[in-house]
Amino acid sequence: MKLPFLTKSLLLLILFSPSISKSLDYRKSTRETPIEEKKVEEKKSEFRAVWIATINNIDWPSKPNLSVAEQKTEFLKLLDTFQKFNLNVVILQVRAASDAFYQSKTEPWSHFLTGKQGRAPNPFYDPLAWAIEQCHLRGMELHAWFNPFRVRNLGYYPLDPKSFAAKHPQFVKEFDKKLFLDPGYPEVRSHVIDVIAEVARNYDVDAIILDDYFYPYPVVGKRFGDEKSFAKYGRGFYPKRLKDWRRENINHFVSSLHDTLQTINPMIKFGISPFGIWRNKIADPEGSSGRQGLSSYDDLYADVRKWLINGWIDYVIPQLYWENGNHFGDFTSLVHWWGKNSFGKSLYIGQALYKSTSKTNGWIKPDELTDQINYLRTNQKVRGFAFYSASNIQKLSATQVKALRGNQLNSVAAIDDNRHVPVATPSAASTPVVAPLTSAQNEELIRKEFIHSLDFNPISIRPELSTLPGKITLAKQSDGSRILSWKPDENSISEWYALVSFKNTGKRRYKQVVQEISKSAEFNLSEQRWKELKEMDLLLVSRDIINKTDRFSNFFQLKRRKVKHVENPYKHS
Questions:
Q1: 3-state DSSP call for residue 145?
Q2: pTM of the model
Q3: Taking residues 431-447, what's their average pLDDT?
Q4: What is the CATH number of domain 439-544?
Q5: Contact (Cβ atoms closer than 8 angstroms) between residue 279 and residue 297
Q6: What pLDDT is stored for residue 360 in this prediction?
């Protein structure tokens, strides 16, 4: 059929106009045109993160057992590169496989750091503490990245015999030539929470973030061997609702971790970086469109949407490592879906930087990454992005570097958060001499800080933490009063103690009332006071005064003078 002259002219204009054809190509896969895609004024702040993967030495250090000087040189080189691109958040993998890139009482030193799991750096330094200092000096945040249940990835190396996995082989499952902790065991979930809590207490990290690995990614023809834990703990789910039970295990883990972090520091951020598809629309009307494939909900048992609805996480970085037009995960459509389902929490988008440097399975369009950033900046629900991963930045071509630095990352941006670290100012030429505190002044300072922490940091009662080592005695005096005393074990370091009671406020939360606080765990209680207190849940709280950030490290339920299961008052429904 012949086309009218005007129609032909318009068609030729569209085909040969680069800007118009590019725009059409960019939108062609999107079935919906969200309101937030319209051009808006430039955002004043932007979350610009980059992942540093330590598993199998993907990004840093380049190989195990480098010298300390070499490790530091490599890390600083990465930070120098990040600064050139005006990035402002470093997501550092500090626990890649049930190990530690920091000094820990719960996990062994990482094989990927020193070449042998359990061996400390020599000469000694704490990589996490040092990395935090270096990032903060440059005005960058450091988010501590944990893989919760992986024990060993592909490749063999001996586990430290003192590690949790080596001491508790009944909790470890082999799957696809890898080792994993079974999340079905409460002991496993409690251990991982304790591991993360240790970092939150002892290090000035800006956030805690978990990646997409909860239960392992499925492999055709292979089963994750959690039959024993399912039979023992399945209760109402056993034997037919295995998938629902697995999801509930991860729900308990995430909600309990949220409560624990709030107990330690209400200002610390807690984020998740899930697989980019929560659920497919064909399986759930609330899911995203696209050809049915893998999903976080159905295959990894991570119900991220529920966590966002319930407020268990502060931010989310879905891994949208696909291009526009991908049949399984169209980038623009998925950004729109996550914007509708972030429920007021900060939304940042994970981008596949590695596809910009990959010779195989890379981007079809060379400017895919920059096009994605341009689109994200028009979407009011999105507040930034995160590149995976760090080493790929140094592999970008000169053309790619010019495109990123000359357009998308051409200026400094404030971190998208009112809690971000300020850029450090140079120290003064001379430091005034400050008289040291007297012993009495120092004790009063510690006492006030302890009281302040009890007043403003709610205690989450978890029975697995109710294990103060030592012995408690309760002596009745002739006048009816009681002397409650605590004798710590011989290895106990200097601690302060508080006697705390809890009252239900009617909102599923408990109000703390500090009864006593002293350097010795001996409390004199009148007969009337004892009658009042014995009707309450009474806890002895211990605090290490050497490490002042170690709040609420231990609890003891004193009502019956033995450890008793007490329901977590912050447990979410």
A1: strand
A2: 0.69
A3: 56
A4: 2.60.40
A5: yes
A6: 85
> Cα–Cα distances in Å, from 265 out to 204, 374, 458, 551?
11, 35, 10, 9
The dihedral of CA 110, 115, 120, 122: what is its sign?
negative
Main-chain dihedrals φ then ψ at residue 487, nearest 5 degrees: -110, 110
- The band of 493, judged by pLDDT with boundaries at 50, 70 and 90, is low
Listed residue (115, 65, 165, 77) closest to 391, CA to CA? 77
In this predicted model, which residue has the larger pLDDT, 200 or 478? 200
What is the per-residue pLDDT for 373? 97
- Looking only at the bridges linking them, the beta strands covering 315-316 and 207-210 are unpaired
Q: In what order do the strands lie in the sheet with 384-388?
A: 346-347, 315-316, 269-272, 207-210, 141-146, 89-95, 47-52, 384-388, 349-352
Topology (CATH) of 36-408: TIM Barrel (3.20.20)
**Residue at token pair 């930034």:** 384
Task: Inform me whether the pLDDT recorded for 510 exceeds 60.
Answer: no
Asked whether 202 and 208 are in contact (CB, 8 A), the reply is no
* pLDDT of amino acid 455: 52
CA distance 436 to 438: 6
What does the block give as tokens for 197?
A: 């809590």
Which of 530-536's residues contact partners 24+ apart within 8 Å by CB, and which partners? 530/481, 530/482, 533/501, 534/559, 536/501, 536/502, 536/503
User: Mutual orientation of helices 186-202 and 242-264 as an angle, nearest 10°?
Assistant: 30
Q: Look up residue 401 and give its two tokens.
A: 């570097």
Q: What is the reported pLDDT for 506? A: 43
- Whole-number Å distance between alpha carbons of 24 and 36: 18
Per-residue pLDDT of 237-272, as tens digits, reads 999 999 999 999 999 999 999 999 999 998 999 999
Domain segments of the chain: what residues?
Answer: 36-408, 439-544
Please state, as a whole number, how many other Cβ atoms lie within 10 Å of the Cβ of residue 260: 24
